[in-house]
Amino acid sequence: MFPAAMKGITKFVDHLYQYPRVDQLHVYPEDWDDKPEEDKKQFMEQFLEHWGYTIYRTYYGPGSDEQWTKLLKNITDGVEKGLAELEEADKKPDAVTKARNWFRLDARSLPTTLDGLTLEDLRQVYREGTGGQPMRGLQRMNWGTAIFMVADAQVLQEPDLNLLKVADAEYDPVAAVPKNSRVGAQRYFGWFTIPTTVVLDFYNFMDIFTFEQTFNHALPGTHWDVGCK
Questions:
Q1: What SS3 class is residue 140?
Q2: Structure confidence by residue, pLDDT tens digits, 129-142
C-alpha cells in the first residue's frame, strides 16, 4: 500500500525536481515571465535529480557473481513494474518513462575493499563517501534519509533472491540501547529486510516515515513488506 503522498505517477515525478531555494532564484532568467511555456519546461529539466539507492555487495563466494547480477535485475524489474502500477500511469506513459530512466541503482561491488564488511563498516563507508558519493533519498518529508542496501551472504545465498537488506547509515548503536529496562530488550539494530521486488514501495513508504518507524511496522520480526501495519 503506497503512502498517499506518492501513490500517483505525477506526484512521484514532481518530487524528482529539486528546485532552487529562495536564495538561489537568481538562476532563473530575468525575462522568465515572458518566456513561452515550452521554454520554461525545458529550462526546469536541469533540476531533475536521480532517485534510488546505493547497494553494497559484501559476499563474493562461489556462484555469487551470477546471483549478484540476478539480484540487480530483480530490483530494477520490480521498480519498473511498480512505476507502471502507480495511479494514472496508464494515462501518462511519458511520466513513467521519466521516472524509470532517472532511477539509479548505485551498485558497489569491489572485493578488495568490501568483502566481508559488517553493517557498521558499511555505515562508515557510506558516511565517508568511500568509492564515490553514495545515493541519498529525495523524499520530500524526510530529508535526513541516509539509507543503503546490502547484498551480503544472507542475501546472495538465498536461491530465489527474495530478500534484500536495507540499513540506516545514521544508526547509533549506543543511543539505540533502551534506557529503561522495563521496555524490554533492544529490538532495533538499524537494519531489516524487504522483498527484492518492493524497492519502490519501500522508497515511497520512507517519504512519510523514518527508518526506525518503518522498522516498527515489521515487528515482531525484522522483515518489512507491503501491507505491514
A1: coil
A2: 999 999 976 555 55
Label residues 52-89 b or e (16+ Cβ within 10 Å = b).
Answer: bbbbbbbbbeeebeebbeebbebbeebbeebbeebeeb
Q: Which three cell numbers stand for residue 96?
A: 513513467
Query: CA-CA distance, 155 to 166, in Å (whole number)?
Result: 11
Reported as type and span, the H/E element at residue 103 is strand 103-108
Query: Which pTM value belongs to this model?
Result: 0.87
Query: Which 8-state DSSP code applies to residue 120?
Result: H
Angstrom distance (rounded) from CA 123 to CA 118: 9
Residue 184 gets the label, from left (phi > 0), alpha (psi -120 to 50) or beta, of: left
Q: Residue 134: what residue type? A: P
Beta-carbon contacts of residue 24 (< 8 Å; ≥ 6 apart): none
